[in-house]
Design goal:
- The chain is built from eleven helices and three strands; from the N terminus they run ααααααααααβββα.
- By secondary structure, it is mostly helical.
- It has a three-stranded antiparallel sheet with strand order 1-2-3.
- A hairpin with a 6-residue loop joins strand 2 and strand 3.
- Helix 2 packs antiparallel against helix 7 and helix 3 packs antiparallel against helix 4.
């Protein structure tokens, strides 16, 4: 691991190199891995992003702020930040994990970014860690998504119906199949004030309900 290259990517030079080593060490490599730092970084990331959104969007509702924060701290976004920082080749793994390509999994890269945030906080202070977050997320904080596009299908369906003074949709589990560790759900979504009904499937009840709600929205739009 070339520390100088990493310092340049991060825009931060660690005083305690051991913290950087820990932040980049996956649990497969043994003790001294990044999971405790990840816990710390996750908490700080959520706080800083929430504060930035609160300051920049004075007219946004609590719901909109919540949805935008979730979009900015989700695994997909963290994985994108990790790619921006070229962290895949810097993660330290044990032999079996290295052979399986774990270091390229988005979840591992996302965890590494959170661990680095925690490491910067311990190595320096809150303001320095905050500055790193704002710098690493700079483009994403400028091009914020429309909150309406972040609403899940169930929320959008309920709001569509409420806006027309219609009752809430009803969901019912039609079938659960597969072994306990790999269940598959089939759910129906029906409108209480007419016979319109659709189905959705998913690996969880919630996922199946979301897919059913999406199908109902498409049916109503049509």
């Amino acid at each position: 691991m070339n520390r100088e290259h990493i310092y340049k990517r991060l825009g931060y030079r660690f005083r305690d190199a051991a913290l950087l080593e820990q932040a980049l060490t996956h649990r497969s490599a043994g003790r001294g891995h990044y999971e405790r730092l990840e816990f710390l970084g996750d908490s700080l990331l959520n706080f800083v992003v929430a504060e930035v959104l609160y300051r920049r969007l004075p007219d946004a509702s609590e719901g909109d702020l919540t949805r935008m924060r979730a979009a900015l701290v989700r695994e997909e976004t963290l994985g994108g930040v990790a790619n921006d920082l070229a962290l895949a080749d810097a993660v330290q793994l044990g032999g079996s994990a290295l052979k399986s390509g774990v270091y390229r999994r988005r979840s591992v890269l996302a965890d590494t970014v959170e661990a680095l945030i925690g490491a910067v906080l311990l190595d320096a202070d809150l303001e320095t860690a905050r500055a790193c977050i704002e710098r690493w997320w700079a483009d994403r904080l400028v091009t914020l998504p429309d909150p309406e596009t972040l609403k899940d299908p169930k929320t959008r369906l309920q709001e569509w119906l409420q806006g027309r003074s219609r009752p809430r949709p009803e969901y019912a589990v039609l079938e659960v199949s597969g072994p306990p560790h790999r269940q598959h759900f089939r759910v129906a979504c029906q409108l209480a004030d007419n016979d319109a009904a659709v189905e959705g499937t998913g690996a969880s009840r919630r996922g199946a309900e979301q897919n059913a709600a999406r199908a109902m929205l498409e049916k109503l739009d049509a």
